[in-house]
Amino acid sequence: MTQPALRPYLPADAPLLAAIFQASVEELTGDDYTEAQQAAWASEADDEAAFGARLAAGLTLVATLDGTAVGFASLKDNLLVDLLYVHPDAVGQGVGTALCDGLERLAAARGAKEIKADASDNAEGFFTARGYQPQRRNTVTIGGEWLATTTLMKPLATSPAASPR
After folding, report:
1. Confidence grade of residue 157 (pLDDT, cut at 50, 70, 90)
2. For residue 36, what are the CA distances in angstroms to 17, 26, 29, 40, 145?
3. Which CATH number is 29's domain given?
């Protein structure tokens, strides 16, 4: 199986990443959210310029398989996994893991002691399997729909170079 590669976000990626976001929401969240909730959530990428600005505002990584973008993740304020989405066709191929590993390494290298995620109900298990601990339940309103999320936190290991001698 091909291993995912990571690269930085480029402004030209916005339309494709918006499509990945929408496909992920529409096809992977049906067990946890209603159709109305999914439609409201997916509409967050309808304005590609605004979506691209959100991606550019954070540290965004794009995952590729054989040169094709199949997922992305964004780190906000060197603390929060703001976005992490994988195209449904690429689920189970290590894309989410590679993206999360990349964000965690970058945050630690920039001095973060912990990293957080506001995870959807369908993504919570992914984060807890990686050592994130639930902190609190949340509700967010998107397009007039209420969606439940969980804030999770994971301590990051300090690099050997940063340890006192």
Report:
1. confident
2. 22, 10, 12, 6, 7
3. 3.40.630.30
Q: How many domains does the chain have?
A: 1
**Does any domain span residue 81?**
yes
Tokens found for residue 54: 């959100």
- Say yes or no to pLDDT of 164 above 50: no
How many angstroms separate the CA atoms of 160 and 56, rounded? 31
User: Going edge to edge, which strands form the sheet with 145-155?
Assistant: 5-8, 59-65, 68-76, 80-86, 114-120, 145-155, 133-142
User: What band does 2 get if pLDDT is binned at 50, 70 and 90?
Assistant: confident
Distance CA 75, CA 96 (A): 14
